[in-house]
């Protein structure tokens, strides 16, 4: 075997072990007994120690030194292995193991604190998480910006300054649009009770309609919807609310976007660095374009209205046009995952600023709730009513995902560019969407983006697919056109 072959064989085993760790995380969020949290923390720490040892194995450096790429794909494999190795060796094994143990325990404590509306019960373990992540960030940054080192894990080759510049461009137009929309009469909302079993049955139908391969996946329930896995085992979760079926349906479509990306990657890349989404921003572009530009479009909601009428009967909406307005209703609210397209990015900007301050030491954990509540009141004009609607609503900080939040808005920006290109490439898309047929759209995304996996850098894969450098203008124009039309602006 050549050095390249030996390295790739070793990498496949490492990736397989990482997939097992991911499956433990899926189990923890879906079916694990509550009392197993501490033991699961030990299990996760043990497998993380094995993974860290393999990822920092000196043989990797030797193989990288001697390996010759046989082709463009091989060169990309080496590039990604080298990047991951260089980052891994900067983090001490004991620190990686400690982070795995504490974040596993913190996840359970967050869920309980959220259920109990008890911020104080969560803050001590969050203090531990933040301290460990600051230590990790310092090791990675090597004297540079700690938060930039965090972002690099989720959106390679992107800095917080670049993100802030994009957000500064978006914020004024989003605030102006939000104000104009909320000054207009509010569309009618759905009403009634929607049985969980019926929601989950229609949720399954939606997943299939958007191309989710159930032979290589499954849908379960979780407190916070997520997608997990890659290749031939990609699982998603959703959640239900008896009075809000859209929570279930659009969480499902969103997570299917993530899962379809993983399922759509070239099978030849399986269990290699290229066999997964290239970044969380690109990943989010898929979930957001599935959920919003396609799933909330006038054409697709016409089909969904018929499906809901068939399942639930009369739910207070007279026709498809009224339903389209209800689906895209802009209203005051607290929850990021339930936010409309106009306000969603404002939620992300809040989190971006707070977590950057936490990592840089400009904000202490003890002051987080007050800082959150002050910023929310300033951005949205009303006060947070309870912790589960405030700083306890998201799972991300409990599991140490600092640097992750801004990728949600980057994903929206990327989705705006992709949607503009998709509409140009498939101008007759709406007649298919009216029939619940998304295959032209999802097929275009699979061919132009998803199949490449990690072959190209994040911004490069968006540029290749959309034909333009990624920027916020297509997204902002889409939002202003759509909601301007809906609200008569």
Automatic annotation (TrEMBL):
Sorted keywords for this record are: Carboxypeptidase, Hydrolase, Metal-binding, Metalloprotease, Protease
Classification via Pfam families: Peptidase_M32 (PF02074)
- Keyword Protease belongs to the record: yes
Report whether Flavoprotein shows up as a keyword of the record: no
One GO MF term on file is: carboxypeptidase activity
Q: Which reaction does it catalyse?
A: Release of a C-terminal amino acid with broad specificity, except for -Pro
InterPro entries in alphabetical order: Peptidase_M32_Taq
The residue stretches assigned to a coiled coil in this entry are: none
| Record function comment | Broad specificity carboxypetidase that releases amino acids sequentially from the C-terminus, including neutral, aromatic, polar and basic residues.
SUPFAM superfamilies listed in its UniProt record: Metalloproteases ('zincins'), catalytic domain (SSF55486)
For this chain, the family text in UniProt reads: Belongs to the peptidase M32 family.
> What EC number(s) are associated with this protein in UniProt?
3.4.17.19
Protein's name according to its UniProt entry: Metal-dependent carboxypeptidase
Q: Which organism is it from?
A: Ruegeria sediminis
Superkingdom of source: Bacteria
């Amino acid at each position: 075997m050549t050095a390249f072959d030996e390295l790739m064989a070793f990498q496949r085993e490492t990736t397989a072990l990482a997939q097992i760790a991911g499956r433990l995380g899926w189990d923890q969020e879906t079916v694990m007994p509550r009392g197993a949290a501490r033991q699961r923390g030990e299990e996760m720490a043990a497998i993380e120690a094995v993974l860290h040892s393999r990822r920092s194995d000196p043989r990797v450096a030797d193989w990288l030194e001697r390996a010759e790429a046989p082709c463009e794909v091989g060169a990309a494999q080496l590039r990604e292995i080298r990047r991951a190795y260089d980052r891994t060796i900067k983090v001490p094994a004991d620190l990686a193991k400690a982070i795995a143990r504490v974040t596993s325990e913190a996840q359970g404590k967050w869920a309980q604190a959220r259920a109990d509306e008890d911020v104080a019960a969560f803050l001590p373990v969050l203090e531990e998480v933040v301290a460990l992540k600051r230590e990790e960030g310092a090791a990675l940054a090597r004297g540079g910006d700690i938060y930039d080192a965090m972002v690099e894990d989720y959106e390679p080759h992107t800095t917080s300054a670049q993100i802030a510049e994009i957000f500064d461009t978006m914020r004024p137009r989003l605030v102006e649009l939000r104000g104009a929309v909320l000054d207009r009469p509010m569309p009618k909302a759905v009403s009634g009770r929607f049985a969980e079993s019926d929601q989950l049955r229609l949720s399954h139908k939606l997943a299939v309609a958007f191309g989710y391969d159930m032979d290589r996946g499954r849908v379960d329930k979780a407190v916070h919807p997520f997608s997990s896995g890659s290749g031939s085992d990609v699982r998603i979760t959703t959640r239900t609310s008896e009075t809000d079926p859209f929570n279930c349906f659009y969480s499902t479509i969103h997570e299917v976007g993530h899962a379809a990306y993983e399922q759509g990657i070239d099978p030849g890349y399986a269990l290699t660095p290229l066999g997964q989404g290239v970044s969380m921003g690109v990943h989010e572009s898929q979930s957001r374009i599935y959920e919003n530009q396609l799933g909330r479009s006038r054409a697709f909601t016409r089909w969904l209205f018929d499906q809901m009428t068939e399942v639930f009967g009369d739910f207070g909406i007279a026709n498809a046009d009224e339903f389209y307005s209800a689906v895209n209703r802009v209203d005051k609210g607290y929850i990021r995952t339930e936010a409309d397209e106009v306000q969603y990015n404002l939620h992300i900007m809040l989190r971006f600023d707070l977590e950057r301050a936490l990592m840089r030491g400009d904000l202490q954990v003890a002051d987080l709730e007050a800082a959150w509540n002050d910023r929310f009141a300033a951005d949205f004009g009303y006060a947070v009513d309870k912790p589960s609607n405030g700083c306890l609503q998201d799972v991300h900080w409990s599991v140490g995902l600092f640097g992750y939040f801004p990728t949600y808005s980057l994903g929206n920006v990327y989705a705006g560019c992709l949607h503009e290109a998709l509409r140009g490439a498939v101008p007759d898309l709406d007649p298919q969407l009216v029939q619940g047929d998304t295959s032209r759209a999802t097929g275009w995304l699979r061919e132009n983006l998803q199949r490449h996996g990690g072959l190209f850098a994040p911004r490069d894969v968006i540029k290749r697919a959309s034909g333009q450098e990624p920027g916020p203008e297509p997204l902002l124009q889409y939002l202003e056109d759509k909601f301007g039309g809906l609200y008569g602006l």
